[in-house]
Amino acid sequence: MTPMVTTSTMRWWHSRICCYFLTFVVVAALGLMSVAIGTRTVPWGDIWAGLSGNLETIGQAAVAKRIPRTLLAAIAGAALGLSGAIMQGVTRNPLADPGILGVNMGAALAVVIGVAWFGMAGAQSYVWAAVVGAGATAIFVYAIGSLGRSGATPLKLALAGAATSVAFSSLILAIVLPRNDIAGGIRTWQIGGVGGATFESIQLVWPFLLIGFFISLLSARKLNALALGDELATGMGENVALARAMAALGAILLCGATTAVCGPIGFVGLVVPHVCRLLVGVDHRWLLPFSALTGAGLLLMADIVGRIIARPSELDVGIVTAFVGAPVFIWIVRRQRVREL
């Protein structure tokens, strides 16, 4: 029996390592495509020269401008994919997602209030406002979804998040419409995109993202325990409330920082964890880093598609991910059978 177990274990490790390696290769290829594809077609010679820092030709200058955009798309996609996996693990809700639970819209509302009512202008202020807004919204949605005898069921959380997202979106419109001085910029930012990326904006959110990634990945074992149920997790020595709070904190930091620099981008955190579970299983020690890697690839691909289908203009990634995510959301609801949620 021992050789059979050993062989099975080796195959298990081999299949997951292959998934990681192949996904990494795909993400790297998408990164190169993101640098090469745009309004102007850039030859490979200019791409390598531009990556080296040369700015002698228009093509090399275009590459230099696309590098921060590519980097931001990869980082934002990784953050959203990882935060989605965390939220689904914390709530044990297959429909959990920063967009569906209203967390992204709460972060956006906090930024809009800061800009419109308090004259907030610095990008650093945007990040703090977005993180606070995301945290407050997460607490609010969980509190509303916990009302009633059955507690925070997946369906109640999804409904509470959807209602909160719609309400916050209406509030944003009510705040922005009378303010012609900020309306154009806010509406563009609210779609969700990476077109205006700069190294300076990435540096501002990098500390929040780094802390969020660190906390989230450290929560993997605790999320495995929570997946067994609160009673079993408590019997295993876990502090259930603390475990949920720490994992949620990591997801909130990731969502808030990403929303501050990119705007609210939906459905990445919903689609990515479900795909990743099919490939590497439900163990969060494998699932969380793989969700980050796959999320980076998805947002890079969405950004590339948005540039190709709308040439010489482009579609923001928030629009592209909505086209991809909405059918997946419907499929998940039908697969899970709403009455059982």
UniProtKB/TrEMBL annotation:
GO terms for cellular component: plasma membrane. The chain crosses the membrane at residues 70-87, 99-120, 126-145, 157-177, 197-220, 241-266, 286-305, 317-334. Its main location: membrane. Coiled coil: none annotated. GO terms for molecular function: transmembrane transporter activity. Signal peptide: none annotated. The keyword Lyase does not apply. It is a multi-pass membrane protein. Pfam families: FecCD. One of its GO terms (biological process) is siderophore-iron import into cell. InterPro entries: ABC_BtuC-like, ABC_transptr_permease_BtuC. Keywords: Cell membrane, Membrane, Plasmid, Transmembrane, Transmembrane helix, Transport. CDD domains: TM_ABC_iron-siderophores_like. Belongs to the binding-protein-dependent transport system permease family. FecCD subfamily. This is Iron ABC transporter permease. It comes from Qingshengfaniella alkalisoli. The lineage of its organism: Bacteria, Pseudomonadati, Pseudomonadota, Alphaproteobacteria, Rhodobacterales.
